[in-house]
Amino acid sequence: MERHVQRFLNKLSFASITIATFILLALLIRTPQTCVPPTASSNHLRFPRSTCDSSARSYVSLEKKNRRLWLTRSFRSQVSSYSDFFHSLQSVGLLRNHSKVLCVSAGAGHEVMALSEIGISDVTGVELVDSPPLVSRADPHNLPFFDEAFDLAFSAHLSEALFPWRFAAEMERTVRRGGACVVAVEECGDQEVRDIVALFRNSKLLGNQNVTLIGLRMTRITMR
């Protein structure tokens, strides 16, 4: 009697394993069903938010994204503010149309566009995250440029640098002898200005002036 029971259990176990194997194979072979229409173009679809989200999402080109951004009131306002800032450098002879200018930590490129719009033909903007075509990706602490490659280097983000002394040294290195380094920092007094100038070990202070830039009260520090 026990032999018959054992044989029955063995057969039942074998049958269960066989059925489970067939089910697993069927699941692996079967093509998963989604709600995305088979005729939909893959060029105009993003990954669905869910299995039933098949609505097509149009691809927006970089050129179109930039055009939308550059035409916003906020962007244009900041570009206008930087234009006024750089016009003041032109008025004292530090900036000319043929000058080669480097903008360090240029963000979305407001200052790069401003310089181009006032007639500076050779402008390079760098940032940790690129924003083409105005700003290329580069580490401000290790700039990928030859020594004395620019006539003027500018930054409004020195205070945000991880290593300010290295940031300043790289700005100096890339500016030719007789060129200028210009930084805009939060409005400060004479002692703070001296502390900032001390970071630029190979430059001398030309002057400092309190200015309004992109709606903020700042101090412009110019060194040569």
UniProtKB/TrEMBL annotation:
Keywords: Membrane, Transmembrane, Transmembrane helix
Domain of life: Eukaryota
CDD domains: AdoMet_MTases
Residue intervals of the Methyltransferase type domain: 102-183
Keyword Signal set for record: no
Pfam families cross-referenced by the UniProt entry: Methyltransf_11
One MF annotation (Gene Ontology) recorded for this entry: S-adenosylmethionine-dependent methyltransferase activity
Stretches that traverse the bilayer: 12-29
Entry protein name: Methyltransferase type 11 domain-containing protein
Species the sequence originates in: Trapa incisa
